[in-house]
Amino acid sequence: MHHCIGLFVFLPPVFDHSGGGDFKVTPGMKTAFEQQGYVLVRSLLDSEETGRVREALESQDSVWKHSFGIKGKDGRLSRLCVWSNPGNDVTGVLARCEKMAGTCETLLGGEVYHYHSKLMMKEADIGGKFLWHQDYGYWYQNGNLFPDMMTAFVAVDGCTKENGCLKILPGSHLCGRLDHTLTEGQQGAELERVEHIKSRLPVMDVVMEPGDCLFFHCNLLHSSGPNLSPSRRWALLVAYNRRSNNPVREHQHPRYRPLTKAQNSLLKTCPLTEPNPEVKEFMDPSKSRTLANVERPSETQRQ
Q1: Residue 10, H or E segment
Q2: 17 with 29: CB under 8 angstroms?
Q3: What is the pLDDT of residues 134-190, one digit of tens each?
Q4: Which CATH number fits domain 32-253+260-272+280-292: 2.60.40.1930, 1.10.3210.10, 3.40.30.10, 2.60.120.620?
Q5: Between the CA of residue 154 and those of 135, 203, 211, 237, what are the distances in Å?
Q6: Residue boundaries of the structural domains of the chain
Q7: Which member of 56, 67, 188, 282 lies 3.0 to 4.6 Å from 131 by CB, making a disulfide possible if both were Cys?
């Protein structure tokens, strides 16, 4: 599918890293990110790296303990766990490694720091949807003055249309920040404006295999449907902010803290988990400016 933005037609910026080796941002990737607001890299993580990340997330009781759900009007639950400090375990090394943090520095054009990581958990059959929104619609309220921010979305499980894969509007980051209001417990972009943008830009279903990574700009409009399948859909998202965009107010995510980048090879040798999980600095959703209708998990709900 070609994307038409204004008078220009672009091919989807999808790049294959299945051959392994060092990963470097090419001029074509940089141009695509600036024009379309995203870059999709197939097999950014190989099967061993993906397996270690999955094992680490599944084995930590702290992830479940600190997770919370947002229930929609349809009764479905969108569950997530958010933390501020990357740490030295495999999820921390992933957030700090060159092919994640280094890629975001190149795409954003300056030094970045770890804004937060989150595990998005759409459980089989019951996982909820996320409304059309921009991440900067949230992060603007946290005192970030410029949209010099982005997210790296790593598929832990396969992401399909049936289990609620991400949907994006390529090029929508060029619209600037939209007004967001609280709807169904979520901050969603102004519906009428989104519909107008959808009449000009194509909706793209981001179908991903485990280990694929979507790098996208904080003003890119995106959403996701409910999980109507018998397959779980977990994804690990790492958000980055430029050092020059240090927030002007205290909030639930950190101000600038230097990020010590790690070699990609450490993903296969670092510890799976932190000896003390609390060093991850898990977020308390009650302190968020942009969340409502939050539910805490019980052991009986655990899938």
Answers
A1: strand 8-10
A2: no
A3: 999 999 999 999 999 999 999 999 999 999 999 999 999 999 999 998 776 678 999
A4: 2.60.120.620
A5: 16, 20, 6, 6
A6: 32-253+260-272+280-292
A7: 188
